Write the structure tokens for this entry.
Amino acid sequence: MIIAVDTREQLPLKFDGIETQVMTLKSGDYSIVGYQDRVAIERKSHSDCWSSMSNGRSRFERCIKRLAALDRAAIVIECSLDELCIRPSQIQRTNVASVIGGLISWSCQFQIPIFFCPNRDYAARVVLRYLASYIKHRGGQR
């Protein structure tokens, strides 16, 4: 398995011992080479999540809709749910209830799981495990 990393990913996760290939992905930030049209993961940092749920909300919703069109997709947020409840100082247009409520609503509406990861290493493990699980459970079903 080779992990595909989107060219627009500003701070790519590191996957020890796993080959990666940088390429333009139509959906998400991470996928599997050869399965980019079937599985993807969108990664968000704490501040990026807040920005995506305020000023960038319509853009993020388009991203979610592209993910929902795939066979499997997930969102990985690089902070705990408790940490997400702390609004970054530069965000003024929204509140905690709107951010958490929006994520839960989209997760339900589009059937996309959201994983809260307390740090980047944990996020990388979740991304790797999710993609490997896709290959294990769905990959052979073309």
